[in-house]
Amino acid sequence: MSVRPDPDKRTGLCPMGHGILLRARVDSDKVYYLERCGLCRGVWLDRGEWQRLAAALYLDHLDDLWDPTWQKQRRREALQKGLDVALVAQIGPELFAQVSQVVHALLDHPAKAQAFAWIAEHLDPDE
Q1: Of 27, 42, 74, 100, which is the most buried if we count CB atoms within 10 A?
Q2: Which residues lie below 8 Å from residue 33, measured CB to CB, with a gap of 6+?
Q3: Does the predicted TM-score (pTM) go above 0.90?
Q4: Distance of alpha carbon 109 from alpha carbon 111, whole angstroms
């Protein structure tokens, strides 16, 4: 008995005859791959992928799915969101909101290093 390979584990050929399709990884509810022709730029979707793209709000970002910089930024944002959720669970939403407000206020402030040093000094357990 032969086992058919998972169609999402491999790419195919452009239906218009332009060659091998390029793949893009889509990280949403479950990882899957989209295929696009590098020449005609046609995107070929498997069953249910249009609905999944719409649910993940990716329909306006189809071209971005093949951009490594955009993909890296999305992974960074997802990681940060997970870290934020974990911190909220540890310190509570009220303190998290207050700390976030301070961090955002200091992001572009010219004296953020001094402010950070002051905060660290006041949180030093040896003092």
Answers
A1: 74
A2: 8, 11, 23, 24, 25, 26
A3: no
A4: 5
